[in-house]
Specification:
Helices cover about 35% and strands about 20% of the residues. The chain folds into three domains: about 130 residues, Beta Barrel (OB fold (Dihydrolipoamide Acetyltransferase, E2P)); about 30 residues; about 110 residues, Chloramphenicol acetyltransferase-like domain (Chloramphenicol Acetyltransferase, 2-Layer Sandwich). The chain has a four-stranded antiparallel sheet with strand order 1-8-6-3. Strands 5-4-2-7 form a four-stranded antiparallel sheet, with no helix packed on it. Strands 14-11-15 form a three-stranded mixed sheet, with helices on one face. By secondary structure, the chain is an alpha+beta fold.
């Protein structure tokens, strides 16, 4: 029987996402845990692993599709029963030829037996590749063709060491993504024409999920949050002196506290002292947050993301510094989970 692969909800608030990339194609065999696709959410690209085993029967949502609703079928796997059904047409044709040659020798059946034989090589040439997610990622970064790599893992599975020592290849992608934004161009041209901007007088750079989200959140923030500028000059000689002493004490632990870490801790303490500032508006009422979940701004390629130090008021400077460093590093490589950058109660940008 066939099994539908559904668009996953990668966070409680996720309603749709972009199917950024397929790691499998029709005919590939997948096992539970294999990375099959990459989904681009609000501010991160996350890998999707297969939960079932089977052969990819059909790709329902093409690579690069935007606005794919959660729980929409994106692919279909053929389970154990389905291949047999798919194979049925071949035997169905096989009896037809023997019917015409029925009076002739029965060995006609073996003569037709080679017909299914090419199917086996076809599967082999269809790159039935078994590789760990980490090996696939390294191979992709190096531009390696996994079908040319000999696996040394269990049952010939390609693992990290098989691709680590291989020299990178310079293979340029076939430019498939260029076709993805094509549908957006006519709509954008119509919008700009209504603004009096003639077609052909500009180059259109499609928005990715991150830029769309940044624009939407900035608009929401400007609409829902009262804005007023407040500038104060501070002499922080004492703070810097304290930071130097703290770092001297933490040196053996390999921890270094930054000025931003001190600001995060100070903001958390202040929010507990003034709980009205640690609140959010909603149509149902004002949410008074129990904890100071401080979002810190991190600049990344193509945008900005705000990973969150949860319950910052309960944490010491060493813990805040360690968490902040880890979150910033994973933010720059887009390895954050949605719950690590959604739901902050206060933001710090330094």
């Amino acid at each position: 029987m066939s099994i539908d692969v559904l668009m996953p909800a990668l966070s409680p608030t996720m309603e749709e996402g972009t199917l950024a990339k397929w790691h499998v194609k029709k005919g590939d065999t997948v096992s539970s845990g294999d990375v099959i696709a990459e989904i681009e959410t609000d501010k991160a690209t996350m890998e999707v692993e297969a939960v079932d085993e089977g052969v990819v029967e059909e790709i329902l949502v093409p690579e690069g599709s935007e606005g794919v609703k959660v729980n929409t079928p994106i692919a279909r796997l053929a389970g154990e029963g389905a291949p047999a059904a798919a194979a049925a047409p071949s035997p169905a044709k096989a009896p037809e030829t023997p019917k015409a040659e029925a009076p002739k020798p029965t060995p006609a059946a073996p003569v037709e037996a080679p017909r299914p034989a090419p199917a086996a090589p076809a599967k082999a040439s269809g790159e039935r590749i078994f590789a760990s997610p980490l090996a696939r990622r390294i191979a992709e970064q190096k531009g390696l063709d996994l079908s040319q790599v000999q696996g040394s893992g269990p049952h010939g599975r390609i693992i990290k060491r098989d691709v680590e020592g291989v020299a990178p290849q310079t293979k340029a992608p076939a430019g498939a993504p260029a076709s993805a934004p094509a549908g957006a161009a006519p709509r954008q041209a119509q919008t700009l024409a209504q603004m009096g901007i003639p077609d052909g007088s500009y180059d259109l750079i499609p928005l990715d999920g991150m830029r769309k989200t940044v624009a939407r959140r900035m608009t929401d923030s400007f609409r829902d949050v009262p804005h007023f500028p407040l500038t104060i000059d501070l002499e922080i000689d004492g703070l810097l002196a304290s930071r130097a002493k703290i770092n001297a004490m933490l040196e053996k632990q390999g921890v270094k506290v930054s000025v931003n870490d001190l600001v995060i801790k100070a903001a958390a303490v202040a929010l507990k002292q003034v709980p009205e500032a640690n609140a959010s508006y909603s149509p149902e009422g004002i949410a008074m947050h129990h904890h100071a979940d401080i979002a810190m701004a991190v600049a990344i390629d193509g945008g900005l993301i705000t990973p969150i130090i949860r319950k910052a008021e309960q944490k010491g400077l060493a813990q805040i510094a360690t968490e902040a460093k880890d979150l910033a590093e994973r933010a720059r490589t887009r390895k954050l989970k949605p719950d690590e950058f959604q739901g902050g109660t206060f933001s710090v940008s330094n």
